[in-house]
Amino acid sequence: MKIINQLICCCFVLLMLYFGPCSAMLSLQEATKDSSSQILAVEFKNPCYSKNSEIKILSVRNGDPFNFSAHDLVGKGIAYICDKNEIPNPFDVTHSGVATLASPVDVFEIIRKQTPSEENPVQNCTIGEKAGAAMIKEISTYHCKILAMTDYKGFEPFLLEASGDAKAVLAGIYPHVQIHPLALSLKKYVGDVFQRSIYFQIPVEYSLNFIANHIGKSYETLSTANELFNAINDGNSKENTSKLFCSEMVALYLRGAIQTYLPPNDFIKRRLELYKNVSNILPEEISSGAGQKYDIMYGVASPDQIVKHYITECCC
After folding, report:
1. Element (DSSP H or E) covering residue 102
2. Which of 63, 83, 97, 133 could covalently link to 202 via disulfide, CB atoms 3.0 to 4.6 Å apart?
């Protein structure tokens, strides 16, 4: 039976690679800087608001984690895999990403610099030409639509994630670290979506530097699929971020932010112990459902709040 379970897990991993992708309150006050008046947030109408989601207006801060629970076959397979460890996963989280607030102009420039072209024949470009063109087209189209909004303030919320899908693969774009307008990602996702609001300020510059360093990086491939499989039971002895799966990328982003922008008191040092090897961090560990023992954002971010409840008969 154990061998059969492992074979099933392997199949689902390979499918995913190419077809989907209270005691803390006192500690929190010690941990976070008093910068509430400086926290940058963007508010916009929840494109997936329904009677099953209480949040009409989304307030997104730079660095807010977003967790996803897929309802398709691949998502159910990932949930099955995740059930093989002891980490609680009551929300069936199967994917994660991080919100970044930025000017589209800055995002365009990063993508342009990392995409090879006749004008940019750089040897170490990280983004494939087709992938770069697809991201720019999507962001440009969305940006043109919101320019007319009276409350537009120059910053837009994006979702940074390591992912891919079958349609993109057929078009020659393989899973990688990519960025999309957050509202579009929420609308397109086939499943439930949860947001966690961070309790401290992460400057936009941090996100832009992170994007520049990691955009276009490949998702785990067939040759490195064992890293993702090993993460189920903390089996990766060494951290390897040359390729990134979804929660590994989010954990890498959050670890750097916590180390940089929170004071190194005892509470933060204990939380950072959970980040000692981001190659072992799975999506459910970015969810509050994992509980204090496993939740890597416990005490520095709010619990998961559902922002989209996917309904088969009538999705947003």
Report:
1. strand 95-102
2. 63
User: Which helix (H) or strand (E) is 44 found in, with range?
Assistant: strand 41-45
Residue 285 CB contacts under 8 Å (≥ 6 apart), including other chains: 87, 247, 251, 274, 294, 295, 296
pLDDT for residue 36: 37
In a domain, 272, yes or no: yes
**Could you tell me the residue range of the domain that residue 87 belongs to?**
2-308
216 domain residue, yes or no: yes
How many domains, in total, are found in the chain? 1
Residues 6 or more apart in contact with residue 196 via CB below 8 angstroms: 64, 65, 66, 67, 286, 287, 288, 297, 301, 302, 303, 304, 305
| Distance of alpha carbon 119 from alpha carbon 303, whole angstroms | 46
Residue 225 belongs to some domain of the structure: yes
The whole-angstrom separation of Cα 172 and Cα 128 is 9
Q: Residue with structure tokens 């989280």? A: 93
β-pairing, 57-61 vs 176-181, is: unpaired
- Is there a domain that residue 313 lies in? no
Q: Over the stretch 27-82, which tens digit does the pLDDT of each residue have?
A: 333 333 333 334 478 888 888 887 655 688 899 999 999 999 987 666 666 666 66
What is the structure's pLDDT at 12? 37
* pLDDT for the residue 125: 67
For range 206-228, the mean pLDDT: 86
Most confident residue range from 16-20, 146-150, 246-250 = 246-250
